[in-house]
Amino acid sequence: xxxxxARLPILLYRARLGITLGERFLLLKHVGRxxxxxxxVVLEVVQRTPEAGIYYVASGWGERSNWYQNAKKQPLVTVxxxxxxxxxxxxxxxxxxxENVFLDYARRHPRTFRFLARFMGYQLSxxxxxxxxxxxxxxxxxxxxLPQASEHAHQRNVVR
Length: 160
Hints:
Blueprint: H1 2-14, E1 25-31, E2 38-49, E3 54-58, H2 66-73, E4 76-81, E5 84-92, H3 95-108, H4 110-119, H5 131-137, E6 140-145, H6 148-159
Antiparallel strand pairs: 1-2, 1-4, 2-3, 3-6, 4-5, 5-6
Helix pairs in contact: 3-4, 3-5
């Protein structure tokens, strides 16, 4: 039952109902680092830059998350938000950038941030979390859209 609940958001995207999850979640399609098979995961968007089309996600389980390890090995991914899909490049932010993303998220969603910080094992003192430690241990990934020409050029280089 828990596995079904965890996969439910993926099923919503497959049924073309991703729009019900709004812009707060996205479907990340990536390639398994060992199997080479397509993989999917639904992630919460922790921040976005609409004018550049960049979405930021965090790896709540740190560097050991399978999706993070897969994207690290093969950073060309596919992103779906609502019913829009595009190719993107997944890149980890440096700790200072990750800290800014967490700070922005904490301002916009204070209760959710406190809950998630506790869930991930960060002790809250006076309502604050050590964002520096969190930004060092929890990877924040920028999903930047690929320009069409760049994507085709990369595909030609990979095929050769």
